Every structure is written in structure tokens, then in C-alpha cells.
Amino acid sequence: MAGLSQFSLHTLITTLFTSDHSKITNVTNSYLGREGGIHLLETAFGDQALQNPNIRTWIMEKAAIICSQEASSLTDRAFGGRHYEDALYLRAPTHSLTVQRLKSFSVPQLLIIYECTTPRLQTFIKAVIGKNPTQTASRSARNPNMVHTMITSMVLNARSRESNLHAAMNSLFLWNGQVSKRVVETLNHYAFCNSPRYQAEAIQIISKDSLHLARTIANDPERLIMLPNDNFNWVGKAWETSALHTSVMHDQVSAILVVLPLPAGSPKGTASQLANAKNFALSAGTRHKLTPEISLEQILPDASDQNIFEDNAIRHVAHILSEEIAGLSVHHKEFGKFFDPHALPITKTEEYYLPTYDQEQASTRGNMLVMEHYFRDVLQIPKETFQARNFFLLGDRSGLLKINVQNIGKNAWGGAGQDSVSLSKLLEKLSSHANINLKKIDFYAWL
């Protein structure tokens, strides 16, 4: 050993893993290939070694390089890389935004992409958060996966503004909540969302795509559509008024195109048959052929309806008692839920927002101009199609009265003692509703 006085462990390790000698290289490569490197690091950097600040700093510097390389594969060095398709998906320039892309956006799906493309970065973020998403205490508790995904999106957006898919969705969410421009600008600096300019351009692009979809659906004979519309007022403020510059009151109309759902299993052509104007003409006068007994039998509750109502009423009282009396709370689940065999199934409404229209609705002419604008100019329904199909409208009572609905109502009510199947005859059977004014559309009086 006297001849090896200058020998050290540092020299040995350096020689083994940096030597150009073929035999030494073969041995070390073989050792590292069998996960020997992990064993070596575990042996060298055990729990005791990790207490050394210098070792900790070195480990974090290497981890930072690895995480930076993974983030780079999705941002500045994505072109031609193995994650190029994922990098394109994470980029959302305004011209690429569509209604379908908004509907298909999913935070859990985004996290799956992050875990596949940046697994080491995700391991680091999960360890820092330190919470298991499967062990959340309640529905109101924070979901660690949501926070996890948001942190990754902000990191990528801070590295490259082009990786802005999550930020774009946040921008639209803030716009829908009418968040002020100053707040959006602040959050943009934090890489949480995009700039107000991007926000405005995105809304314009998505509005055009939504209008295109609405026109396609409105002209589809296999769809039943309804047009809810209502007027609203807003004031354009002038903080310094003059003879030519003052506050202006705007009277505008907002409208939505709603697709009415058909019963499950409806055959093809059901919508066109129901909306066919000729079918309504063929059924004209049918109500006059019905006797009062048959017409009332179809709308009044039968014995089965009365029994179901009685059961639900009892169940309702039992639920109230179980909530108010502590001794009965253990039986709360035994009462069951309300049952209605004729209840409509819960479905998600398919709707499309249409552009506003600067037009008053205080007159019959104004209402007709609104209908003409939306059906002809906005939805671009041909005149021939409009004359052959029935389209459903939904507005406030004031607007409906302006379009001569009152005259239609008089035909439906009929005259007392003249039409045996009119609604006025029904009032004679319902003594508690005898004070209803037939010349006034009063929905609440029937309750």
C-alpha cells in the first residue's frame, strides 16, 4: 500500500467511469446497463447523504435540467420531436377556436397528456402538493389533480405563450363571468389566462362558428327548433355631455336558437312531420268534433294520477318529519324518492347564442322586424321553407301579445255557451278558478 499513497476513492471512481480504455468501458457499461447506476446512487446518496446541503443542491440542479428538457419538448423544441402532435394540441391560436373545441376541452384529459409527455415534472409537482386525489374529504374539497394540471399549464405558458390551451379556456371562463379587463391583464401576467385582446378576438371567432352551426341546424328538416327572444335596454354613458354627445339608451334584442329534443327512439322524419304546416291545416277544426266529456277526460287527472299524487304527498310529509324529528331521521332513506311515470327525462339543452339586434319590441311592427331579421337574415331560412314549416317562438307575455296572440287566445277560449269544447267551458267545471279573466293571459291564475 505504500506505493499507492496517492490513490483515492475519487480517483478510482473517476477512472472507472471516464476512462477510454476498452476493457474498463465494457465493464462499466455492462454494470450501468443492469441498473447498476441506480444502485450506485442509492448507495452513495442514502438518507444520511441527502442531509448534505451540497448533495441536495446537486440533485435539484440535475432534476431541474430533466424537467426543463421535458417542458422544452412541448414548447420551444417541439417541432419534429416525438411529442409534436401533443404540442400542437396545447396551442390554441384564435383562428383555431371552434365551438366543438370548447365542448371537447377536459381538464382530466389534459392531465393525461401532461403525464405522458412530462412524467418527471408531474412526479415533482405531485410530491410538492402531497395530497392523494382519491382521499378528498368531500365534494367541496379541492381536487389536487385540478391544481396539478393548472400548475403545469402555467409553467408551460410562462415558458412559451404559444402553449396556451388551458389559458385560453380560462380567458373565456373569465369573459363569461364578466371579469374586468384589469383583472384579466393581471392574471395574464401570472400565465393563468391570455390577454384581453386575445379574449376579444376569441369571442369573435367562436361567435362566427356558433352562427354557422346555428344556420346549419335551423335549415335541417330533421331538427325541431325554437327561438327564445327578449328585449333588453342598456345605456351608453357619456361622462362629459354636450349638445352632440350625450348618454344614449339602446333598445336591443337577444335571441337563442334551441333544438327541441325528440322522444327517444323516434324514427327518421319525425321532426319534419311534426313541423309540417300541412299537418296543422289538416287538423283544423278537429277540436270541434270532440264532445265535452272526451275533451275534459284527456286533460283531467284520472284515478291512477290521483293514486300517484297521494303516494308522493305521503312520502313528502314523511321526508319533512324525518328531517324535523331526530328520532325519525334513521328512516329517511326508507321512504324512497318521488315517482312520476310521466316525468320528462332530463336532457342537456342544445342551444346556440345568436347576435343581438338593435331593434325595439314595443310595437307589432318592431316584433315582426325582429322575427324577419332572425329567420331570414341571421339563420338564412329560405322563404319557401319558412312557409312550409312551423317554427316555435318563445318570448315574454308583452311581446307575444304584440303579435296578435290575444286574437289566437280568443279563438282557443271560445265564447261562453257557444263552444262546448273551449277552455271557457272548463272554467264551469273548476269553480275555484271562476275569476279568471278570459281577455288577459294570466298564467298564474290557473295555479
Arithmetic mean pLDDT: 81
Secondary-structure element sequence? HHHHHHHHHHHEEHHHHEHHEHHH
Total count of strands = 4
Task: Note poorly predicted spans.
Answer: none
N-to-C terminal Cα separation, in Å?
Answer: 106 Å
Shape: elongated
What is the tally of helical segments? Answer: 20
In terms of DSSP E residues, the strand content is 5-15%
Largest sheet: 4 strands, mixed
Order the strands across the largest sheet as they lie in space: 3-2-1-4
**SSE class:** alpha+beta
Helix content: 40-55%
Alpha carbon gyration radius: 35 Å
What is shown here, in short?
Helices cover 52% and strands 8% of the residues. It has 447 residues and is of the alpha+beta class.
